[in-house]
Amino acid sequence: MNSSQRSPMLRMSRGYATASTDALQVICGTMPLDLEAKYRYYKGLIKARTAFALGNVQYNGGDETSKATIDLENELMDIWQSRWNSSIKERTIYEYFSRVRNRVEKIWIELDHFTVQFLTGHGDFKSKLMKLGLKEEDTCACGEIETAAHVLRYCKIYEEERSQAEERLNQAGVSTGVNNPKEIVLSREAFIIFKGLCKEILTKKEAQRRNAEQE
Ligand SMILES: [Zn+2]
Questions:
Q1: How far does residue 95's CA lie from ligand 1's centre (Å)?
Q2: What's the CA-to-centroid distance between 158 and ligand 1, angstroms?
Q3: How would you class 171 by CB atoms within 10 Å of its CB: exposed for 0-12, middle for 13-18, buried for 19 or more?
Q4: Which of 60, 62, 113, 139 has its CA at a distance of 20 to 30 angstroms from the CA of residue 193?
Q5: Each residue of 21-77: pLDDT tens digit?
Q6: Are 100 and 84 in contact (CB under 8 A)?
Q7: 68-85: per-residue pLDDT in tens?
Q8: How remote is the CA of residue 138 from the centroid of ligand 1, in Å?
């Protein structure tokens, strides 16, 4: 059922098709389809004042409809959260959004093709491409293993872009620079700086690759 959500989410996230459905749901802040369907069904019962029990939710058919709706939402969020906790495939995005609610509440997050690659770890990174059989080696132009974390946090090729972004992040109240994934997505201001850095890095990376091919 949830796989039918994939293509709209891929469009929304502009992500790489290899990221799992679990990850795409969290990155887009889109509740899994089966839970969304449950939400609509039980919300209909509340509206019709029909009693039901679902997990920790006990609705007696009375007038406390807004409380029941909040309880219902919390229950489904908890189910989604426990699925996300046990989804072992996608640890990169888990570092940014370990709480699904945190992602859902950040309605100001607008994703682009560049940011998604760093958030998911699926993208133009040789270690990932090698695992997928698309590259024969996994080393960055600097000689280290090329992962999303390496490129974003450590690679000396992007030192200048990174330090400029870190200076701006500092002004925005993020003292940990690009090293703490949770801090980077905490505020809209920090996220926009992070987004700019993702674009700069991947644009530079692509330009350098083209230059190397021409030589
Ligand atoms: Zn490197």
A1: 21
A2: 8
A3: exposed
A4: 139
A5: 888 899 999 999 999 999 999 999 999 999 999 999 999 999 899 999 999 999 999
A6: yes
A7: 999 999 999 999 999 999
A8: 11
